[in-house]
Amino acid sequence: MSSTVTISKENFSLKSIETANKSVAFEQKAISDTQKVQQQNISESQKILSLEQSENQTSEQDISQAREQLTDWVERMNRLSNENVKFNYNEDMKGIIVTVINKQTNEVIRQIPGEDAMKLSAIWKEAIGNIFDTKG
Questions:
Q1: Domain boundaries, the chain
Q2: Mean pLDDT of residues grouped by 10 in the chain (136 residues)?
Q3: Which residues lie closer than 8 Å to 118 by C-beta, 6 or more apart?
């Protein structure tokens, strides 16, 4: 006994349309889900950016406030003593130089780091630059 299954053209087309509709619905849901994830990523990125900006502003304010406090302290100490203390930032060394100067004679009493240490630092930086030359 053999049985034959007949599929009419209308029946086949209806099933094809239903399958296509399900496929389209699935794709639309996937697109919608993807868009939601993208929106969440954008939202999170904006939150992170805003936090980073507020942290940068805070740290700049903290640095400014610390600089003002240090300047006030140095000025008070200078008024109380016979020496002036100066703080300078050296671009070549990328560091702070402290100089103590006698008020009456304007003679440098002490400099930290000293001239020899600054020369040695420059020599080391040049040597390291020559050893680890990244240009060529």
A1: 19-80, 82-130
A2: 53 67 76 76 72 70 81 76 79 82 86 86 81 65
A3: 90, 93, 97
